[in-house]
Amino acid sequence: MNEPDWNLYRTLLAVLETGSLSAAARTLGLTQPTVGRHVDELEQALGHALFTRSQQGLRPTDAAQALRPYAESLSTTAAALLREASSAIGAVEGVVRISASDVIGVEVLPPILSQLQAAYPRLSVELSLSDTLQDLLRREADIAVRMTKPRQDALVARHIGTIELGLHAARSYLDRKGSPADLKALTEHHMVGFDHETAFIRASIEIIRQQAPDFPQNLHWTYRTDSNLAQLSAIRAGAGIGICQVKLAQRQPNLVRLLPDFSLSLDTWVAMHENLRQSPRCKAVFDALCEGLIDYVRSA
Amino acid sequence: MNEPDWNLYRTLLAVLETGSLSAAARTLGLTQPTVGRHVDELEQALGHALFTRSQQGLRPTDAAQALRPYAESLSTTAAALLREASSAIGAVEGVVRISASDVIGVEVLPPILSQLQAAYPRLSVELSLSDTLQDLLRREADIAVRMTKPRQDALVARHIGTIELGLHAARSYLDRKGSPADLKALTEHHMVGFDHETAFIRASIEIIRQQAPDFPQNLHWTYRTDSNLAQLSAIRAGAGIGICQVKLAQRQPNLVRLLPDFSLSLDTWVAMHENLRQSPRCKAVFDALCEGLIDYVRSA
DNA sequence: TGGTGTCTATTCAAAAATGAATGAGCCGGA
DNA sequence: TCCGGCTCATTCATTTTTGAATAGACACCA
């Protein structure tokens, strides 16, 4: 039995993502019959049924689900290959894909990246807002800005510094509700916070417990979202008191820091796949990111 | 511009590996003209020359070299996908690829694996003898036996125990040359050791320095090889005194341990990609490997 | 209930990819 | 020096893959 055509994996992934032959055909620029034939061919080659056909689409079997991560890995690697090929050798041009948290991506990176693009006009930047380090290994991004120290051997990481977090609220909110005199008074306020308790959140809560034993346990969470960015917007809009970056709040005239003794800090890192050190375009972006973020962290 | 056919990457890799269109065509089961056309097509799609043609083969350009790791990653991932597809859902069958050092692979694993295959007749094991942890992330193997603690987040690792290393020689050698009375006497002997000084070797030398200050600096290395397995064979054949696993030497009637106060220890780990925990065939092999190796380490 | 949207399956002609054969250049050994 | 080995390039017939069109089945909505 010969190795199946690698294109079959691409159409497999498209069918998994879209849920139907027709939709997959549209995204792939093929037609529904060919996509169907690809699936048939792959099923025959692998010896498993991959989908149960029905008139309103295909439902993937467990076998297809098991193969999905591999197909995704193929797809991201192929995309990374194309990015690598997007630049001439030795030139700072082409596409670089950056991954960062939403707040960093929206509030901090734009000036840094626009300056970078002024310096290298033939450079394109793709920005993916997500928070896992996995995506560097899977090559979903070339460079990542992260708040945890990368522990992967295959990554190059540079430590940027520490970002300070503090409690903030909008003036409009404080005009209505007044300012809390101490941490215990927070129970009387509307709080903006996280929706789901991730490992990172649990760790943060632990740190808060240690550093600020007065921090109340049961707060009145009136606005919960897992997006830091949405939290920031909510605080700005006067929805309540929440935690955000101190440096960021200083730039916003209508945000006030509360109880400045309460403070959390986030270590910040910029990480990149080791292989990409050879690539001038990635190295240029890496260096510019480090420089710009260090400026941001140290800014008064 | 459309995304290039993924098959083009496969032929690119084959051409890079074989060094000629014709040879690549043979390994791919295609013909030389099609391989040539694939390369042309890819060059056009990427906008780079990938090879400089000549009558005695193709020389890859820097651009092609830069793409090589990506193509290799595609290839290993496609192979991993096929392995995953080689087993029915929930069944312990199909192909599992194990990576281990040469000594472990040749001397320790066979009984463990043959027992495993007796338990699961539809299971196939591929054994790759290499020593880097990288290959797990690149999916070059499903499971690895390693002598260093894995630091990758994406890996599941289990600690097996400590393997003791000691100085050994064959009786035939000792009959000719006599036994060294102490470490200093090693300078009078033929020694079997490593060829290149890797990071691991340097670390080991450092440990030796600390634990055995008497260990001579300048030994008479008469047999150098980077393969542990070849070292073991050389010691067995009476080429000289060398370091090998104590447990392993105990099984060999003609090997004698020398200066038993001298001892090194290696921490042993079995590691696997986190995703594969879902896969019964990998989990079964992982568990069997752990059990078998623990038995080996603890055996009298 | 009938119309419209979605989906998959099938057929058949057109387009694309492939292979066999051949030519030409280079290298090394007899 | 010639021969056999290897290489890549080119041509043309054949095979394979693809797409357009169509039919049938289901779901939703007026």
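The first strand of chain A starts at residue 51 and ends at 54.
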